[in-house]
Amino acid sequence: MVSPVCSNTISNYTNAGDWALDYHRSCVYELPDEWQSGVKLTFAWPLPATMAAAAVAISLIATCGARTLAGITGFTAILAVIGLSLQLGIGLTEMYRRDIASLWELAHPFLIPQGNTLLQPRVWCAALAHVLLSLGLGVGLLMNFSSRGSFRFTLRRHLWGLLVLVVVMTALVTMVSVLQLTLLASDRGLSVHQALSSLRYKYNNATVAGDNFVEIIDERAVGVSVGAAVITASHLMAVVTFPFVWLKQAVSTIIFIGLWCSGVTTGTVCVHTLIAALRDARDCLPRATAALILAPLLLTAATPSVTKGGAAVVALLDGDVLTPVVLWPPFTLTLAITAIYGIHKVRKDFTFMLEATVSLLWIPVWGVFIPLSLLGVVVWACVMDGQAVAVTDGPGWRTALVWALRALVLLPVPITAIYVVKSQLAYGIIDKVASSLQSSREWGDWGPQDPIEHHNWRRWREDETRPIASLKRRFANRPLTYTHSTLSSESSSTLTRLRNKYQRNGTASIL
Question: Model-level pTM?
């Protein structure tokens, strides 16, 4: 429960972000005063310096070559897994020291949710958004490395590895989160449901942020958007007893470095995608120049998250803007590929990449199940939780800001559509639109970026009657990686120069 000191001091804040952050850090979690200026656990770790170091590290790592990037991100991911494993071991040890039956009763509703919880659209939207984002980044990185010849095995094996990795990491993170939240909720006299409840806001009729911006919050709620992973890990380290002080110091350092590395790894993959896009747009753009362009942008973007008011703005953007943005592009992309490019052509592309026959069952999954599922989740959210999706609660400036950002994100869609329709050679607007909705016979930039593999891919695509046996015979006489050359040492000098240029420049993606 909230202490009387907190109840007397919360009315002194006029800024909603400052009030929410101070409330959670000082009242709900009962954290030390050092949290107001920086994170102080068992060692000194100033929060602004940590965010700045993460932004700089992401910029530098993302500009490395394919092999170097794979090694560094692999190392940081290993540190993150080690930190999670330590949290899991410490949490299990602490749980066995307590009353396991009562803790299980506390965590049981969270592990096995009730029907009303599963009927909440935001639960499904958030889960689907995270899965799509994780798989999208993972597959994109795998294709990028495969196109540069950084992998020794086929893309098919790496896709299975990615699937297994997603399942294992999801289970590990879930177990760690359940253990830490259960211990925190037990020590605070809450249920896990209350500990996971989002902040509940009620606004008056104010139109601007300031003195009239009033926030009334459930005093027992713990907002997961306010650094929940760091705070729950800090609580776990505070309640566990170690035989030596230096051991607690070492374990705490490893755990929080692992948390830092997990954020750096995810950010590196995202920034690497941006750098690859910049280098695709500008063929002669060096990696160092791309880093100099992105580093100030990352530092500027990370600055609001270390301030109290900025953290509230970041939470608003995360819940009201990013979730719809993550959901809509996969739906429109799969629908466009299904209706325009064609399922049969996509199946042949995956056959070429995976070096094996793709089952016919994949066609209804890609063409029917995936787009209808994405559309169903979006429609479901709008019907059952329409008030939250429409952002009708709160002051007018909040509604205007959220919808302006949503419109800004979707603005490239009509611009691109107008450009594509206008560039068609047909006469009349109706014929131009009809022509733009047809799959072009020109290959353009579609296909493998490796010039030799692009040539092989075009030959494979142009012969619609070629049996799968011919593809298998061709694969049997070449290395395991589909991006390696199938030509002998007496290959054309022109293709050799193209391949050397490709390996030197490191083109971004396979497709």
Answer: 0.58
Residues 261 and 345 in one domain: yes
- When the pLDDT of each residue in the chain is averaged and rounded to a whole number, the result is 65
Beta-carbon contacts of 349 under 8 Å, excluding residues fewer than 6 positions away, are: 461, 511
Residues 6 or more apart in contact with residue 320 via CB below 8 angstroms:
391, 402
What residue has token string 């209706």? 339
**363 in the same domain as 479:** no
* Cα–Cα distance, 163 to 154 (Å, whole number): 15
Residues 45 and 193 in one domain: yes
pLDDT at 232 over 70: yes
Inside any domain, residue 55 = yes
Residues 177 and 104 in one domain: yes
Residue that wins the pLDDT comparison between 382 and 5: 382
**Is the confidence at residue 436, as pLDDT, over 50?**
yes
Confidence at 193, pLDDT banded by 50, 70, 90: low
The one-letter code for the residue type at 341 is Y
d(CA 35, CA 311): 14
509 labelled binding-site residue: no
Longest dimension (CA), the chain: 83
Number of folded domains that form the chain: 2
Task: Tell me which H or E stretch contains 39.
Answer: strand 39-40
Helix-helix angle 468-476:343-354, to 10 degrees = 20
For residue 432, being part of any structural domain is answered with no
Domain extent at residue 369: 4-403
Using a 10 angstrom Cβ sphere, with 0-12 exposed, 13-18 middle and 19 or more buried, the burial of residue 8 is exposed
Residue 199 has pLDDT above 50, yes or no: no
Between CA 431 and CA 26 the distance in angstroms is 64
What confidence score (pLDDT) does residue 445 get?
A: 53
Does 498 map to a domain?
yes
- Position with higher pLDDT, 174 vs 213: 174
Residue 414 lies in a domain: no
Residues 6+ apart with CB under 8 A from 478: 484, 486
